[in-house]
């Protein structure tokens, strides 16, 4: 099944893939880096530290919405399955929507 995330403001597709290049984890969608539209997104220096997954970097739409995704480059033990994958909120959110 194809899963995709689109920027609500511009309609630009931010990520799209079929399983296993995208999977649901903790209620979010995690895409392989190759499935992400890198022309539309930028990884920022802004971080968030989850007490059990580790530190992730927030991802913004270039010249657009902030914090639409995140990426864990070095997740903690037990969460290696999300390493280098881009996490997006699934469903419809204020900035993005699953299509």
Structure, explained:
This protein has 99 residues and is mainly beta. Helices cover 0% and strands 48% of the residues. It has strands at residues 2-7, 13-18, 22-25, 28-31, 41-50, 54-61, 69-71, 86-89, 96-98. Strands 3-4-8-7-6-5 form a six-stranded antiparallel beta sheet, with no helix packed on it. It starts with a strand and ends with a strand. 25% of the residues are buried. The model has no long low-confidence stretch (mean pLDDT 97).
What key attributes describe this structure?
99 residues, mainly beta, three-stranded antiparallel beta sheet, 0% helix, globular
**H/I helix tally:** 0
Globular, elongated, flat, extended or rod-shaped: what is the shape?
A: globular
- What is the makeup of the main sheet? 6 strands, antiparallel
Question: Which ranges are low-confidence, i.e. pLDDT below 50, for 5 or more consecutive residues?
Answer: none
Structural class: mainly beta
Order of neighbouring strands in the sheet with most strands: 3-4-8-7-6-5
SSE order and pairing:
Blueprint lengths: L1 E6 L5 E6 L3 E4 L2 E4 L9 E10 L3 E8 L7 E3 L14 E4 L6 E3 L1
Antiparallel strand pairs: 1-2, 1-9, 3-4, 4-8, 5-6, 6-7, 7-8
Summarize the entry for a quick read:
With 99 residues, the protein is an all-beta fold.
């Amino acid at each position: 099944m194809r899963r995709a995330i689109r920027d609500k403001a511009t309609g630009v597709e931010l990520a799209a893939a079929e399983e296993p290049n995208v999977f649901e984890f903790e209620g979010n969608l995690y895409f392989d880096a190759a499935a992400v539209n890198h022309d539309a997104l930028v990884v920022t220096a802004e971080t968030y530290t989850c007490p059990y997954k580790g530190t992730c970097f927030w991802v913004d739409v270039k010249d657009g919405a902030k914090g639409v995704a995140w990426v864990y480059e070095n997740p903690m033990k037990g969460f290696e399955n999300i390493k280098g994958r881009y996490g997006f909120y699934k469903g419809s959110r204020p900035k993005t929507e699953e299509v």
